[in-house]
Amino acid sequence: MSVGPTCLLCFEREPEVCHRSIVAKELIQETGFIVFNLFADDPERYVRQASKLPRFNPRKGVAAA
C-alpha cells in the first residue's frame, strides 16, 4: 500500500457515528495515519489550531475549512 496525503470525507455531524470511522480506525492501525476531523460549523477551530493541521508542503499556508 502506498501512503500519501489522503482525505476520507463524510457529512455526518459527529465523526463517532459515521461508518467511515471504521475505515479510518483500520487505516490508523495499518498505516499509522493521523486523523484530523473537520467540523463545518466551527471553521475558526482550524485557525486556532493551525499548528496541529497536517502539512504535506511546508511552503504552503493553512486555509480554514
Explained architecture:
- The radius of gyration is 13 Å and the shape is flat.
- The protein is mostly helical.
- The chain has a domain at 15-52.
- The chain starts with 19 loop residues before the first helix and ends in a 17-residue tail after the last helix.
- It has helices spanning 20-31, 44-48.
- The mean pLDDT is 71.
- It comes from Hyphomicrobium sulfonivorans.
The separation of the N and C termini measures 28 Å
Q: Give the mean pLDDT.
A: 71
Main beta sheet strand tally, sense and closure: none
Order of helices and strands: HH
Q: What is the tally of helical segments?
A: 2
How much strand content do the residues show?
under 5%
Count of β-strands: 0
The low-confidence parts are none
Give the SSE map:
Layout lengths: L19 H12 L12 H5 L17
Which key phrases capture this entry?
single chain, 65 residues, mainly alpha, 2 helices, 0% strand, DUF488 domain-containing protein
